[in-house]
Amino acid sequence: MKKVAILPLDNRPCCYDFTESFGKWGAVQVFQPPKEIIGEFTYFGDTEKISDWLKETAPKVDGMILSIDQLAYGGLIPSRIMERDLETCKGIVGIIKQLREDHPHLLIYAVNVLMRISITTKNKLFTQYWKQVFAYSQLYDRLHRLQEGEVEGELKALEKQIPKEVLQEYLDARERNHHMNQLMIDWVADGTIDFLAITQEDASAVGMHLMEQRTLVKKVFELNVQRKVLVYPGADEATQTLLARMVQYWENSRIKIYPKYASSSGKLEVAKFEDRPVEESVTSHITAAGALVVDEVSEADLVLYVNTPVGGDIDGNHPLEEKAHFNSRHPLLYLIESIEYDLKQGRAVSVADISFPNASDVELVQFLLTENLFFSLTAYAGWNTAGNTLGTCITQSIISIIAQRKQGGKEALEQEHLSFMMERLMDEWAYQANVRGKVNLDITDRLNVDGTNLEGKYEEVNQLVKKEMIPYFNRLVSYLPMGPVSARDNWNLSLCELPWNRTFEVRVKVGKGS
């Protein structure tokens, strides 16, 4: 079995735990550095220890997947602030050159984030001006790229409202990170890196990122590395995507995927925090994962159902938002009956639930559970942005299909699959769609803390989250199919905690046995 070392973006579950789980399925062995040496929230990864780990691990593996943001800046959130200047970052990432020189046959994939169009909420001051910087980026793009001169006065007025230190750090970080992205393209061209994903973090259809994207794509063309670099929406999920790509490369096989969209209008929607129609994002994620889009379901190894947005400006973070449309244009019956038909035809079926950002669609999840379809799926995801969800869903699908081909119907693989599927719903349905909003309202009113930073109230809030999650777990277990692996009395919620000092995400582990 091939071995791959992954340097994650940071130590959040979506960046660390997911790839750790995929390494247990029998398609590939995954090695990751200890959690304590990589970035956590506003804490930087330990550059020296990470470099030592890379050098020690390289001789033992067949490939490496490297988050440049973790290596250069210390993590995703540190990538948006200016603790490290460009020259310092260049010096740190020089370890990749050394790895290539010492191990010329090592397969090296890398991912670098194209910075989002607002600041990071690292403290109360920055949280206060998040929306203004977002608007600034959009207005700047409209003035300078789209040549809409009428917005110049609005841009100047907004610039005066934002504290100078807040805006300047944002602009400096953008410039530094843009130079790093260009350097990574150079390293693809000279053979240091075998494949590079440049993933566009939270954005919109207009913004400063679009001028940067054009520069990067033009550079890819000029250096003639169009087969080895892809710029597309995403961030946290990207090491998963590159894992799927690497595994298929080693297997000398490409999974063929047929996308099915909830509606023809939905696939043309621009999902929240993204800059292009859903259909284009889906194609990009399938391509980045090394799979192929096919036009006929009869050709496909997998049918990928995409639960598309229905419109509106829901961002998934307001505590009173319902994670349901209750709209007659939302074609749930079509989705369920089509999924059921494809499953009966013996097809592998997955669901990318991107109808809402930051949560499952509770109408769809209830329908999948009550019709006993959910646990027959090859994969499901419904977290954060559309790109995040697509990357996890597609990767889980690819790793699962390849593991099945290599291992057949082993009970251990079925157990890992069921655990991961339950964890997805405990995270995206139970917590994100139901518990998080309730908890945020409670702690704001009762403890006077904000969900973006729990300050000294972590333990109290963490216990509250655990208490609120138990009923959802018990309900979910009741839908498990009967069988030797899925026997309902054997499962437990072995871990439920807030991984960072905020309520934005949860870490859940579902286990079997006492």
Automatic annotation (TrEMBL):
<protein>
    <recommendedName>
        <fullName>DUF4127 family protein</fullName>
    </recommendedName>
</protein>
<dbReference type="Pfam" id="PF13552">
    <property type="entry name" value="DUF4127"/>
</dbReference>
<dbReference type="InterPro" id="IPR025394">
    <property type="entry name" value="DUF4127"/>
</dbReference>
